[in-house]
Amino acid sequence: MDAAVQGRRPVRSFVRRQGRLTVAQRRALDELWPLYGVTPTGAALDLPALFGRRAPVVFEIGFGMGDYLIGRATSEPQHDFFGVEVHRPGVGRVLHRAHAAGCRNLRVACVDAVEVLRDSLAPESLDEIVIQFPDPWHKKRHHKRRLIQPAFASLAASRLKRGGLLSLSTDWAEYAEHMRAVLNAEPALRNEAADGGFVPRPPTRLRTKFEQRGERLGHAVFDLAYRRR
Question: Which residues are listed for S-adenosyl-L-methionine binding in this entry (predicted)?
Answer without folding.
Answer: 60, 85, 112, 135
